[in-house]
Amino acid sequence: MSLLAKQLIERSCFLPALASTTRTGALGELTPGLGDAVIHPAEFFAEVEAREAMQSTDTGRGIAFPHARSESVKRLALSVGRSAKGIRFRDSQPPVHLIFLLGIPPAEIPAYLECVAWLVRTLREAGVYDRLLRAESEEALRAVFLGMEGKT
After folding, report:
1. Interval 87-136: pLDDT, tens
2. pTM to 2 decimals?
3. What is the C-alpha radius of gyration for the chain, rounded to an integer number of angstroms?
4. Which residues, at least 6 apart from 128, have a Cβ–Cβ distance to it below 8 Å?
5. With contact defined as beta carbons under 8 Å apart, do 67 and 57 qualify?
6. How many CB atoms within 10 Å of residue 138?
7. How do 13-15 and 77-87 pair as beta strands?
8. Rounded distance between C-alpha atoms, residue 122 and residue 111, angstroms
């Protein structure tokens, strides 16, 4: 795990039980988790929704990476949500159970790419997806990622 990825995970918000049943609702729950990294949350939320409407970030494997590069974001930020029931991002795909909402300042594209690459590698590790689905607290979700230190 790179130092950048570790710092991002340590300051991220993890929501183990999203209440929403829609993509828009879930993104609405996750946006405040980006905290003070987002200067104008309503603008950022609208940009993420527009990005999703243009092209969904649903991977088709129960995971989505909604994001926006925005002047409303002052530093790279991550908010992670888990939905036991699943949320439809696209009608043609299975429901999404893990959502990784990323806020990216326009000047931090290399850092964003490094963190997304690390997330994807980590999620491909045997058992990680299942451990995240079973994690029932913010601490348990974070621990899955921090437990991967040195492995990806």
Report:
1. 998 877 889 999 999 999 999 999 899 989 989 998 998 899 999 999 98
2. 0.92
3. 14
4. 122, 144, 148
5. yes
6. 16
7. parallel
8. 16
